[in-house]
Here is the input.
Amino acid sequence: MTQDELKAMVARAALDHVTPGALVGVGTGSTVNHFIDALATMPVRVAGAVSSSEASSERLRRHGIGVLDAGAVERLPVYVDGADEIDPRGCMIKGGGAALTREKIVADLAERFVCIADASKRVPVLGRFPLPVEVIAMAAPQIARRFASIGGTAVLRSGVLTDNGHPILDVRGLVITDPPALEAEINQWPGVVTVGIFARQRAHTCLLGTPQGVQTLVF
Ligand code: 5RP
Here is the structure.
């Protein structure tokens, strides 16, 4: 199976975690695109979605699924999203698609985070994938220097601004053995909008696509 077929398989499996007629939180990325397409095939559709990006909102609307503003919703039963890496505790690196801030906001509204990913995303320790960090532009150089002081090399993602209008730093060279502590630390740095470590908003369940089928990890 190709990586894309694995992504489509877990996206379909995620429908088992969605309540027909209820709201659903929807992430961003190629795996989630399959999930949005699968949502449109439900015999009883969801009542609507809270989306983490303009791209996902547009795809949802194309399928006739209503998109609600996050501010209009107090709680969501479930948030479904992909990941760039996921560790044995369900902590993740996210933001490869530059949607990390809205992803964290919508994940925080949800009772459960269901991560959908192909098996290549499972790692023993986070950090091989460059850590995305959304920043206020004027602070990017000083944030890059702070990363250098802890062993990271931060590079501005070329030609990319987030849906919120901010640049992204991608940080290589970190070995993230304590994701909750590093997330809390980086979040204190002036000018950081959101760090792509999802430890506080970690996954409760991961549906992992393997050539043998969907493997369900519960954290
Ligand atoms: C977007 C994300 C995505 O969930 C992550 O990049 C995985 O993407 P894909 O499903 O395309 O592999 O965090 O900001």
About this structure: Residues 118 and 209 are 4 Å apart (CA to CA). The mean pLDDT is 97. The longest strand covers residues 110-118. Residues 27-31, 81-84, 94-100, 103 surround ribulose-5-phosphate (CB under 6 Å).
